[in-house]
Amino acid sequence: MKLQGIKSEYTPKGKLKKVTINAASKSEFVEDLLDVIAVEATKNDSTKPFDEVVERLDKKHGIKR
After folding, report:
1. Is residue 13 part of a domain?
2. Residue 61 and residue 52: Cα distance in Å, rounded?
3. 1 assigned to some structural domain
4. How far is CA 24 from CA 4, 17, 49, 56, 63, in A?
5. Which secondary-structure segment (H or E) carries 9?
6. Measured between alpha carbons, how far is 59 from 52 in angstroms, rounded to an integer?
7. How many domains does the chain have?
């Protein structure tokens, strides 16, 4: 199967050797795939509430809201 922005490389025996994803591709499929990869890579990272982050940045940069 051919997909824009994705290149597959196979061994002489026909087994999948390497998949290259062109991150600059205009393909919506590639964009969605990269989003899923990013989510999976960070799913176990610690998180903070958005309001807490904004408050810390405002304090750091002297911004009053």
Report:
1. yes
2. 14
3. no
4. 11, 22, 31, 34, 36
5. strand 6-10
6. 11
7. 1
Note the Cα 4 to chain centre separation in Å: 18
Question: Is residue 1 over pLDDT 90?
Answer: no
11: left (phi over 0), alpha (psi -120 to 50) or beta: beta
Predicted TM-score (pTM) of the model is: 0.57
List pLDDT tens digits, range 12-55. Answer: 999 999 999 999 999 999 999 999 999 999 999 999 999 999 99
Q: What is the domain extent for residue 34? A: 6-61
> CB under 8 Å to 11, separation ≥6 — which residues?
17
Q: What is the CA radius of gyration of the chain?
A: 20
> Residue 20, CB half-sphere, CA atoms under 13 Å: how many?
6
